[in-house]
TrEMBL record:
Organism: Blastococcus goldschmidtiae
Name of the protein described by the UniProt record: Uncharacterized protein
Domain of life: Bacteria
């Protein structure tokens, strides 16, 4: 859990410093903005109704923490 909070803090800091890019993805009726922030070699993607966070790897098993 601490690793996730640390990564979320890094993403927040990158966002506040202007890091990230806004892309417009096509939907059925219109385009939607999607924010992508690269932190530590991983891309965090946040859209209007969904997000795709990059969870850290668990050191013991090699699987994701989530």
């Amino acid at each position: 859990m601490d690793a996730l909070l640390r990564l979320l803090a890094l993403v927040g800091e990158a966002y506040l410093r202007g890091g990230g890019s806004v892309e417009h993805t096509s939907g059925i009726l219109r385009t939607r903005p999607v924010l992508t922030i690269a932190v530590g070699g991983n891309n965090w993607t946040m859209g209007w109704r969904s997000s795709w966070p990059q969870y850290p790897e668990n050191d013991d098993t090699g699987s994701s923490v989530a």
